[in-house]
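Please decode residue identities from the backbone states below.
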């Protein structure tokens, strides 16, 4: 399957070089040199799948994990390009999950005012979400994704073959974005996918295609998030705050999708309280995410810690916290102001679930 936004192409196919698509793309583009950015896991599990299709190249490895998505790692990468005398006709291939894609794209787009990069996303989360939409960046001073820019890759090559080595928790984390796409945009997709929530043995190719189409459609209408694109933040206002606290305070921090799943339950509660989401749909959403992720002891996070992060959240305008909230499953509104008291009630709703 091929999706062609304005100036790049997203290829979704069972294996990377089916029909020679990847190699012919590289041949057409005649880059002066190719760099591949990997983390320790993608070097071990994913690089062997792509190596045979690459011209002469250099592999740059960084340690895995969100804690690496910072300015120190960027400095290391810029130094690698400087040492190698990389020019503006180089290509960077981001081979990995959202951390590699967000940071690799950022580094490539800023080195010598930018050289080309492509994404080969290897986690479900990056295949259905992070690799599409042009948001690049890094975390700074404990705030996630606060430094960055909008810039599209030259191409995205998505292939479910990489998912075979992905740990279950990572797969499940990405699946929460799949469910989000159904909740905000397509009720039928939600109903199809929520059944898979029990076993996670879905047809990934079909889910990836549908999710990428939804994300692409939203981003096309509002590339710079001045309006509609905000619906993609459903679950993320509270979810990001929980994720940030967990990253700073827990030895085994929540994964992005795990935090967002909690956020979606709380924000579904807010949707019911202020935006007309029917009570039975709130129950359905709550049940689906609890069944998939179990219950997290949210009561251990002080309310003030969650509120503080939300106040800093870059998505807020005029210092008020605004939410993207469901009106019904498949239908999401944005820029809805909610009082601190209701936010506290939404968190309490989660805490009192059994
Ligand atoms: N740019 C965007 O629009 C956007 C959207 C959503 C999320 N994000 C960002 O994406 C990041 C999260 O992405 P993620 O969940 O992919 O995290 P990640 O990149 O940290 O990958 C998760 C883990 O899986 C490992 N891994 C990757 N592919 C593998 C494979 N095929 N087999 C085995 N292990 C593999 C990685 O080494 C890592 O340990 C966050 O930083 C988030 O802010 C960005
Ligand atoms: Zn997300």
């Amino acid at each position: 399957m091929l999706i062609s936004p304005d100036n790049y192409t997203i290829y979704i196919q069972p294996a990377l070089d089916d029909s020679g698509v990847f190699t012919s793309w590289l041949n057409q583009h005649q880059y002066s040199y190719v760099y591949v950015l990997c983390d320790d896991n993608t070097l071990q599990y994913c690089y062997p799948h792509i190596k045979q299709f690459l011209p002469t190249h250099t592999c740059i490895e960084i340690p895995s994990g969100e804690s690496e998505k910072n300015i120190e790692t960027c400095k290391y990468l810029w130094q690698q390009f400087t040492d190698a005398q990389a020019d503006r006709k180089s290509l960077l291939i981001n081979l990995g999950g959202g951390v590699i894609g967000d940071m690799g794209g950022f580094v490539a787009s800023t080195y010598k005012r930018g050289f080309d990069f492509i994404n080969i996303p290897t986690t479900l989360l990056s295949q259905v979400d992070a690799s599409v939409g042009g948001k690049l960046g890094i975390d700074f001073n404990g705030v996630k994704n606060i430094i960055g820019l909008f810039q599209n890759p030259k191409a995205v090559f998505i292939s479910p073959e990489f998912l075979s080595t992905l740990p279950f928790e990572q797969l499940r984390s990405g699946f929460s974005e799949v469910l989000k796409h159904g909740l905000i945009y397509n009720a039928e997709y939600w109903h199809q996918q929520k059944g898979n929530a029990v076993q996670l043995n879905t047809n990934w190719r079909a889910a990836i295609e549908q999710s990428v189409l939804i994300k692409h459609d939203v981003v096309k209408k509002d590339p710079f998030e001045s309006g509609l694109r905000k619906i993609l933040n459903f679950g993320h206002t509270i979810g990001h705050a929980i994720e940030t606290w967990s990253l700073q305070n827990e030895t085994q921090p929540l994964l992005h999708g795990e935090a967002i799943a909690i956020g979606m339950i709380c924000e579904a509660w807010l949707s019911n309280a202020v935006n007309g989401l029917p009570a039975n749909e709130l129950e359905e959403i709550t049940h689906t995410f609890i069944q998939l992720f179990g219950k997290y002891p949210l009561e251990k996070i002080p309310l003030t810690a969650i509120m503080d992060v939300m106040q800093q959240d870059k998505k807020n305008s005029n210092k008020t916290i605004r939410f993207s909230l469901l009106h019904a499953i498949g239908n999401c509104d944005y820029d809805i102001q909610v009082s601190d008291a209701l936010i506290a009630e939404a968190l309490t709703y989660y805490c009192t679930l059994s």
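Observation: The chain is about 45% helix and 20% strand.
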